[in-house]
Amino acid sequence: MSDRESGDDQPQGQSKYSQGGMDVGTSDFDSGQNQQGEQELATKMLQIQSKRFYLDVKQNRRGRFIKVAEIGADGRRSQIFLALSTAADFRDHLSSFSDFYASLGPPNPESMPEDGKLKSEMMIKENRRYYLDLKENSRGRFLRCAQVSQTITRGGPRSQIAIPAQGMIEFRDALTDLLDEFGTDDGGFKGELPEGRHMRVENKNFYFDIGQNNRGIYMRISEVLQVKSNFRTAITVPEKSWARFRDIFADYCDKMKDGSTSGATSGDKASSSGTDIGPGPK
After folding, report:
1. Among the listed residues 52, 35, 54, the one whose alpha carbon sits nearest the alpha carbon of residue 43
2. What pLDDT is recorded for position 274?
3. What distance in Å separates the CA atoms of residue 159 and residue 136, rounded to the nearest whole number?
4. Nearest CA among 140, 158, 139 for reference residue 149
5. Residue 69's closest CA among 57, 85, 86?
6. Of residues 115, 79, 122, 119, the one with CA closest to residue 103
7. Is the entire prediction scored with pTM above 0.70?
8. Torsion of CA 145, 33, 27, 4, to 10 degrees
9. CA distance 225 to 242
10. Rounded Cα gap, residues 167 and 5, in angstroms
11. Paired sense of beta strands 231-238 and 216-225, if any
12. How far is the C-alpha of 55 from the C-alpha of 179, rounded, in Å?
């Protein structure tokens, strides 16, 4: 029995990496969406048995990551995304799985595990989980890496790749080369976020809070109406949109100023006399 990779439960889809004349420099299927300001820093291609793997180091406002794309012989493709720190963990697990694979004897259909799993590990990075399973079926042994977002309800779709067991060392060495060049620091914003601000206008309180998650930096603007229930509403504005919001507000301020030069409105008077701008408890 040859150690060919399994094709079980692999997602289907069209790939920009065509089977003939692949152009990795123009590829971009990060979660199916083009990322504004995304830059490709390096790429590696591996041919492992009947599959091609592309390891692309990319960078955007949130930091650096590696996109791993698997292209099957039939044109099917799938991909996973690894932060550089996660890629380092994955590289170490590949060494462990390779050592375990080397210790195994020839495949024996009579002693094959019921679920096909020979060894399993899990990695956690922010809101993503990665399940690593060295599996065996009638066509051979392979390492399946499944990426699952914790924001998706249980049973939701997952991204995954399957690496033929015989190619784990080659895959690990390719990752090592990229990590030696770019390091294991995910990048992104590392400074201290600005302190929250508070503003009171008539019977309303507005809170401006800066936060950060795996998607980047954002501002949450909360409006609290001081009635019996302290009714609260909020919007979240991504950091990349702040300048546009500022320009729109400034444009409206200029237009209102041009149209009311004779004096401030009653609302403006209330704002100027009853506004408390600055940090404040909620």
Report:
1. 54
2. 43
3. 20
4. 158
5. 57
6. 119
7. no
8. 20
9. 24
10. 10
11. antiparallel
12. 11
- By residue count, the chain amounts to 282
**SS3 state of residue 207:** strand
The H or E element spanning position 168 is helix 168-182
User: Which segments in the chain show pLDDT lower than 70?
Assistant: 1-37, 150-157, 188-191, 213-215, 227-230, 260-282
User: 244 is written with which tokens?
Assistant: 């546009």
Secondary structure class of 191 (helix, strand, coil): coil
Amino acid at 142: F
Q: Using an 8 Å Cβ cutoff, are 40 and 61 in contact?
A: no
Residue 149: name the closest of 78, 48, 244, 81 by CA. Answer: 81
| Token duo for residue 183 | 């390091």
Q: What separation, in Å, do the N-terminal and C-terminal C-alpha atoms of the chain show? A: 66
Note the pLDDT tens digit of each residue in 233-244. 889 898 889 999
CA distance 264 to 200: 18
pLDDT given at position 77: 92
